[in-house]
Amino acid sequence: MPFNVLTSRMVEAQVMPGQTLFSQRGAMLAYRGDVRFTPSITGGQGGVRGMIGRRVANEATPLMTVEGQGTVMFGHGGHHVHVIDLVGDTLYVESDRLLAFDGSLRQGTMFLGSQGGVMGMVRGQVTGQGLFTTTLEGQGSAAVMAHGGVLELPIGPGRPVHVDPQAYVAHRGDVRNKLSTAIGWREMVGRGSGEAFQLELSGTGMVYVQASEEKL
């Protein structure tokens, strides 16, 4: 169920019978056809068990299911929207950045320490993202929100990318991430560059960076 980009802040999805789409509650802007919008009690996929896991991980953003037949336009808060198409790989993204996603994608949560060890947990605290993040895996599309548009930065062997933790939006693929620091005496006395922490992503995949250091 691909999304069509209408403007930098709006996307459109074709809803077909027998298919389900999830979106943030209240994100529908307009629609055509016979489409139903129902609050998702479990907050996405995985049933009650998945719901409990997301609530424990603080990754439980209120969602609604979108079903029927027609065309739906989505947007939220005037944020920029970026569409990511998955082809069997995994997207790592904060739940509150998900505008809408294909119901065929498997939804889960991941402990940041499993990718970045202790520094992964520190990263969660530095960025304000907490200790867990949301994962979407499989074949399908997701529309994510950001400030000021999104740049896609490919990652390959020997070509890591360093990102300001506040500008990080998401990443996909076989990617390792860790928080690196450059705290010296200048930062200690308040004369540093303001870039004391960087998020280093390495492996093979893609990282998505927004044009702002502001969280949603």
Instruction: Name the structural class.
Output: mainly beta
Mean pLDDT: 83
How many individual β-strands?
A: 13
Number of alpha- plus pi-helical segments: 3
**Largest sheet geometry:** 13 strands, antiparallel
Radius of gyration: 18 Å
The N- and C-terminal alpha carbons lie at a distance of 26 Å
Unreliable stretches (pLDDT < 50, length at least 5) are none
What's the overall geometry? globular
Residues in helix, %: 10-25%
Following the backbone from N to C, one meets helices and strands in this order, namely EEEEHEEEEHEEEEHE
Strand content: over 45%
List keywords for this structure.
216 residues, single chain, 3 helices, 13% helix, mainly beta
Provide structural commentary.
By secondary structure, the chain is mostly beta strands. It has helices spanning 47-56, 113-127, 185-188; strands at 3-7, 10-15, 21-24, 28-39, 63-74, 80-93, 98-102, 106-111, 132-146, 150-155, 161-163, 168-181, 197-210. Strands 1, 2, 3, 4, 5, 6, 7, 8, 9, 10, 11, 12 and 13 form a 13-stranded antiparallel sheet that branches. It starts with a strand and ends in a 6-residue tail after the last strand. The mean pLDDT is 83. InterPro entries: AIM24, AIM24_sf, Trp_RNA-bd_attenuator-like_dom. This is AIM24 family protein.
Condensed summary:
This is AIM24 family protein. This protein has 3 helices and 13 strands.
Fold topology:
Blueprint: E1 3-7, E2 10-15, E3 21-24, E4 28-39, H1 47-56, E5 63-74, E6 80-93, E7 98-102, E8 106-111, H2 113-127, E9 132-146, E10 150-155, E11 161-163, E12 168-181, H3 185-188, E13 197-210
Antiparallel strand pairs: 1-2, 2-5, 3-5, 3-7, 4-5, 6-9, 6-12, 7-9, 8-9, 10-13, 11-13, 12-13
InterPro entries: AIM24, AIM24_sf, Trp_RNA-bd_attenuator-like_dom
Organism: Streptomyces rhizosphaericus
Pfam families: AIM24
